[in-house]
């Protein structure tokens, strides 16, 4: 009767995922930052060289015979060669006229470059170039001439370097992310370890073991365990109360019935008129009916309650059957019924008390409905995955009723005659067998009118 | 045989004493565990019938204590639920148990079964003429040969022999011998009497039919 809990999500998975998402975000952020820094650093380096080169050229400006002269120093370009494979362009303008160099190199002539070095990135001859511009004032022919020196260099190498650094940064970030994800998974597992441990302790418990858990637990889980312990305590005391109640109820019902039956039986032996005797016999039968019904009802309650907290211990079916047969043998003897047995040793896991009660009910039925001086055959056999206990009588059969009908509460066969019964015996047996993962079968006896009731119980 | 009945319900106790007396047994009745301990100190019993719920304690505690130093067989009388009591009483060392209210025929049958398992008691034979009936072994010795009787034959012969010389009606025999659960008629008595007559052939006692009244066992 255990309800299955629908699972939704997993704390471990959720925790791992959350930590991994955080790690991915941090990895992306760090990659972006490294990439931007490397780009800036590469550009800064190029700018410094371009500025140095332009300044070196500007330092060589002279005025000679009223004309501005310039001898471009070798060093100015050799330093640019430090960044290899780049094309270098230059242009020197004197009052807006190209003095030397590429006269199509666009140079900004605004006030921006006054005094210092100005930089610009522009497209020239199909490439992105970086330009450094320096302005000098040279005196020639008694007047100040504004000279602008512009040195440009393509940016391919800078882009390549920053791309290389960016790739390396991406790889490092990816590695960082993978490591962080693995660590997140491990961290999630480790954090949930106490919960897993407690789950194991709880599920290893036997169904009837309601002792409180005595284990240490982390601060977060301790309240759960405390609540569980309190619940078990309440359950345990409520179960104990039910058992006591059932036993007490049986006592309360049966004690007055005992008095009535006893008085009726004493009276039966002292009255002589046959009609009075008949009345007393009917009283006794009625008392027997009601005490039996009360007993079976309470047994049924006890059985239902025990199947809810089924214990699984090793049970020797042969020994158990032997006990049940011994208990009922005096009743069988009263009718001179022979009980023939074939009981090889066979063990199953189950609740011995419940199984005993089920077998008691089946055998009790067989004895009740068997004629005097007949034989009941009880065989125990291993049927592969199941243990089969077959009880065959030579009784009156069940008059067309089937096992499904007879295992319903208070249902009895159509031909029970005067036999006292409650209609709960097979119901109890059926419930016990079902609780043990088995079923009840009923077939006609091979010879004669009797029936065979077989209890099939799972061997695992 | 001598039995000790520990039972606080006076009506039940009275009827057990009466009924067992009919079978020739002597019953001492104790209404409490205290009284029972006194009885056990001054007499030897063949069997104890013990109620579970008594005014001065739980019969099962008494049983556990009793088992330590005694070998007298015990049958527990219980009005509680079978499932729970069966285990506790048998585990504590009771030889058998019977649920109240019980049928006297069943109680007798259980007493005999327990005594037979425990090796019997001293006076379990009835003799009439040259016929001896061994009640626990279920054997009948007629003159110089022995034969085994079926249970119902044995019970019927026991009642007839104990009441030798008296007329017993079929109804009386029916009430004494069979449980109220068994759907048995007075005709069955005739069948069993006929069988017993065959079994008794060769011996001196006879089962007479007293027309219209019943049966009587006599010695010629």
Automatic annotation (TrEMBL), chain A:
The keyword Membrane applies. The chain crosses the membrane at residues 15-34, 168-188. GO terms for cellular component: plasma membrane. The keyword Transferase applies. It is found in: Membrane. One of its GO terms (molecular function) is phosphorelay sensor kinase activity. Its main location: membrane. Keywords: Kinase, Membrane, Phosphoprotein, Transferase, Transmembrane, Transmembrane helix, Two-component regulatory system. Coiled coil: none annotated. Residues 248-460 form the Histidine kinase domain. Its EC number is 2.7.13.3. SUPFAM superfamilies: ATPase domain of HSP90 chaperone/DNA topoisomerase II/histidine kinase, Homodimeric domain of signal transducing histidine kinase. Gene3D superfamilies: 1.10.287.130, 6.10.340.10, Histidine kinase-like ATPase, C-terminal domain. It catalyses: ATP + protein L-histidine = ADP + protein N-phospho-L-histidine. Residues 189-240 form the HAMP domain. Pfam families: 2CSK_N (PF08521), HATPase_c (PF02518), HisKA (PF00512). PANTHER family: SENSOR HISTIDINE KINASE YKOH, SENSOR PROTEIN QSEC. This is histidine kinase. It comes from Saliniramus fredricksonii. The lineage of its organism: Bacteria, Pseudomonadati, Pseudomonadota, Alphaproteobacteria, Hyphomicrobiales.
From TrEMBL, chain B:
The keyword Transcription regulation applies. One of its GO terms (molecular function) is transcription cis-regulatory region binding. Residues 123-219 form the OmpR/PhoB-type domain. The modification 4-aspartylphosphate is found at residue 51. Residues 2-115 form the Response regulatory domain. CDD domains: trans_reg_C. Residues 123-219 bind DNA. One of its GO terms (biological process) is regulation of DNA-templated transcription. It comes from the Bacteria. InterPro entries: CheY-like_superfamily, OmpR/PhoB-type_DNA-bd, Sig_transdc_resp-reg_receiver, WalR-like, WH-like_DNA-bd_sf. GO terms for cellular component: cytosol; protein-DNA complex. Keywords: DNA-binding, Phosphoprotein, Transcription, Transcription regulation. This is Two component signal transdurction system response regulator. It comes from Saliniramus fredricksonii. The lineage of its organism: Bacteria, Pseudomonadati, Pseudomonadota, Alphaproteobacteria, Hyphomicrobiales.
């Amino acid at each position: 009767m255990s309800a299955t809990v629908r699972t939704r999500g997993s704390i471990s998975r959720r925790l791992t995922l959350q930590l991994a998402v955080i790690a991915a975000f941090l990895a992306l952020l760090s990659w972006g930052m490294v990439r931007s820094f490397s780009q800036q650093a590469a550009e800064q380096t190029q700018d410094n060289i371009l500025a140095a080169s332009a300044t070196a050229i500007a330092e060589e400006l002279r005025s000679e015979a009223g004309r501005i002269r310039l001898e471009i120093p070798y060093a100015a370009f050799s330093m640019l060669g430090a960044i290899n494979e780049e094309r270098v362009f230059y242009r020197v303008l004197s009052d807006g006229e190209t003095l030397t160099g590429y006269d199509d190199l666009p140079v900004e002539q605004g006030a921006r470059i006054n005094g210092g070095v100005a930089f610009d990135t522009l497209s020239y001859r199909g490439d992105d170039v970086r330009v450094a511009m320096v302005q000098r004032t040279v005196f020639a022919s008694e007047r100040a001439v504004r000279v602008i020196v512009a040195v440009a260099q393509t940016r391919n190498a800078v882009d390549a370097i920053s791309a290389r650094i960016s790739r390396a940064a991406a790889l490092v970030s990816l590695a960082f992310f993978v490591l962080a994800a693995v660590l997140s998974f491990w961290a999630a597992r480790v954090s949930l370890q106490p919960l897993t441990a407690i789950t194991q302790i709880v599920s290893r418990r036997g169904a009837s073991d309601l002792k409180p858990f005595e284990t240490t637990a982390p601060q977060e889980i301790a309240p759960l365990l405390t609540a569980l312990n309190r619940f078990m305590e309440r359950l345990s005391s409520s179960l104990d109360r039910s058992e006591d109640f059932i036993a007490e109820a049986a006592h309360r019902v049966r004690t007055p019935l005992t008095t009535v039956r006893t008085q009726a039986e004493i009276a039966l032996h002292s009255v002589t008129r046959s009609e009075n005797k008949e009345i007393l016999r009917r009283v006794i039968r009625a008392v027997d009916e009601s005490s039996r019904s009360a007993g079976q009802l309470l047994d049924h309650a006890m059985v239902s309650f025990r199947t809810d907290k089924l214990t699984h211990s090793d049970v020797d079916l042969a020994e158990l059957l032997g006990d049940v047969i011994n208990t009922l043998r005096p009743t069988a003897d009263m009718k001179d019924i022979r009980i023939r047995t074939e009981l090889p040793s066979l063990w199953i896991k189950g609740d011995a008390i419940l199984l005993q009660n089920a077998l008691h009910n089946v055998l009790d039925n067989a004895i009740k409905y068997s004629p005097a001086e007949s034989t009941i055959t009880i065989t125990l056999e291993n049927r592969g995955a199941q243990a089969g206990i077959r009880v065959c009588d030579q009784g009156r059969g069940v008059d067309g009723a089937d096992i499904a009908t007879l295992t319903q509460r208070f249902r009895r066969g159509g031909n029970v005659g005067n036999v006292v019964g409650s209609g709960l015996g097979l119901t109890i047996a059926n419930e016990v067998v079902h609780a043990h993962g088995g079923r009840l079968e009923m077939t006609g006896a091979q010879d004669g009118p009797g029936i065979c009731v077989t209890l099939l119980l799972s061997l695992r | 045989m001598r039995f000790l009945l520990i039972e606080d319900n006076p009506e039940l106790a009275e009827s057990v004493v009466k009924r067992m007396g009919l079978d020739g047994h002597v019953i001492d009745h104790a209404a409490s565990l205290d009284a029972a301990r006194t009885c056990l100190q001054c007499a030897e019993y063949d069997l104890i019938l013990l109620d579970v719920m008594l005014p001065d304690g739980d019969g099962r505690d008494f049983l556990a204590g009793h088992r330590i130093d005694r070998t007298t067989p015990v049958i527990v009388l219980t009005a509680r639920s079978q499932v729970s009591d069966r285990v506790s009483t048998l585990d504590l060392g009771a030889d058998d148990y019977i649920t109240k209210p019980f049928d006297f025929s069943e109680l007798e049958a259980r007493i005999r079964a327990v005594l037979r398992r425990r090796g019997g008691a001293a006076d379990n034979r009835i003799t009439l003429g040259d016929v001896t009936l061994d009640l626990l072994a279920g054997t009948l010795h007629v003159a110089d040969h022995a034969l085994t009787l079926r249970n119902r034959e044995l019970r019927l012969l026991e009642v007839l022999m104990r009441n030798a010389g008296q007329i017993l009606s079929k109804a009386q025999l029916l009430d004494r011998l069979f449980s109220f659960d068994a759907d048995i008629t007075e005709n069955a008595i005739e069948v069993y009497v006929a069988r017993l007559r065959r079994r008794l052939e060769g011996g001196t006692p006879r089962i007479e039919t007293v027309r219209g009244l019943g049966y009587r066992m006599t010695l010629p």
